[in-house]
Design goal:
Elements (H helix, E strand, L loop, with lengths): L1 H6 L4 H8 L9 E4 L14 E4 L2 E7 L14 H18 L7 E8 L5 H11 L6 E6 L9 E8 L2
Parallel strand pairs: 4-5
Antiparallel strand pairs: 1-2, 2-3, 3-6, 4-6
Helix pairs in contact: 3-4
């Protein structure tokens, strides 16, 4: 089925949405947000729902107003980011178990074991697929940013 979807010219993301049942009649893009997490600090949405999928923009460790960085260590910043992600998930009736994929952007991959230890506290069983990459710089010079895709059952 996957090959057939790609041969129709669909992008991998749209094909995944179709495979997961995310294109039910009448369901389209929904821009979502919660006031329990800092507002978007640029021209992007906090979250976008599409069918059964929820896309959460990259989250960095800012305070509730979005005007100051919180935490100084990789562990502290990872915990803050994952707590915010949990808040966003709960605002849509989801939880960590519903996360299908995560992308972790780190300033220094030498600190991967520190991030991974905290990450494991949030995803204890049936962890999502994950990509982790080192980047030259992140917004506000934070140490970590995490974006996730979750799915409704």
């Amino acid at each position: 089925m996957k090959r057939r979807l790609f041969s129709l010219g669909l992008t991998p993301l749209l094909a995944a949405s179709l495979v997961l049942g995310g294109c039910a009649a009448g369901t389209g893009k929904q821009v979502l947000s919660t006031d329990k997490v800092y507002p978007a600090i640029g021209p992007y949405s906090q979250m976008v729902g599409y069918g059964n999928l929820l896309f959460i923009s990259g989250v960095i460790p800012l305070n509730a107003k979005g005007d100051a960085v919180m935490g100084t260590t990789t562990e502290e910043q990872t915990r803050i980011v994952l707590d915010y992600i949990g808040t966003k998930l709960r605002s849509q009736g989801l939880g960590y178990a519903d996360v299908l994929s995560s992308t972790v952007y780190m300033k220094d991959l030498n600190e991967f074991p520190l991030m991974n230890r905290v990450y494991g506290e949030y995803f204890k069983t049936d962890a999502p697929v994950r990509a982790t990459v080192e980047v030259a710089r992140l917004p506000r010079d934070v140490r970590i940013e995490i974006a996730v895709i979750a799915g409704r059952r």
